[in-house]
């Protein structure tokens, strides 16, 4: 092993807003260094960190268009019985539904965060 994963970093047009979105989605504490307005960390109790970096002229993925692929995505595990409630919550936070569970034939649904990054709610 060469190193350990320190953070997953998402480029976006508004790091503070996107960090707040993910804080509501997966929990954690948003940390902003006032001297650096182009970087925000979301620190989580389990040690996983998401970071958000300002990308001027950010072009979001256009999933599933191969011309602007998803680049990466996050799978967010939720209890199967709570999938519909979780969907309502992420939509209220500003997410956009990209693709549903195809009439119950899949155990995941695809969304875009407010900056256009795809993520999935996956029933577990």
Report on the architecture of this protein.
This protein is an alpha/beta fold and 124 residues long. It is built from two helices and eight strands. Strands 1-4-3-2 form a four-stranded mixed beta sheet, with helices on one face. The chain has a four-stranded mixed beta sheet with strand order 5-8-7-6, with helices on one face. A hairpin with a 5-residue loop joins strand 3 (39-43) and strand 4. The longest helix has 12 residues, at 15-26. The radius of gyration is 15 Å and the shape is globular. The protein starts with 7 loop residues before the first strand and ends with a strand.
Strand order of the largest sheet: 1-4-3-2
Q: Could you give the distance between the termini?
A: 30 Å
Low-confidence stretches: none
Total number of beta strands: 8
Biggest sheet layout? 4 strands, mixed
- What is the structural class? alpha/beta
**How many alpha or pi helices?**
2
Identify the overall geometry: globular
């Amino acid at each position: 092993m060469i190193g350990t994963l320190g953070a997953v970093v998402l480029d976006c047009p508004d790091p503070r807003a996107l960090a707040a979105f993910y804080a509501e989605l997966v929990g954690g504490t948003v940390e902003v260094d006032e001297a650096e307005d182009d970087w925000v960390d979301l620190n989580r109790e389990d040690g996983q960190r998401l970071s958000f970096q300002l990308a001027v002229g950010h072009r979001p993925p256009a999933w599933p268009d191969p011309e602007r692929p998803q680049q990466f995505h996050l799978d967010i595990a939720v209890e199967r019985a709570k999938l519909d409630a979780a969907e309502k919550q992420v939509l209220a936070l500003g997410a956009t539904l990209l693709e549903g569970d195809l009439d119950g034939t899949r155990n995941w649904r695809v969304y875009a965060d407010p900056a256009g990054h795809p993520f999935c709610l996956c029933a577990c």
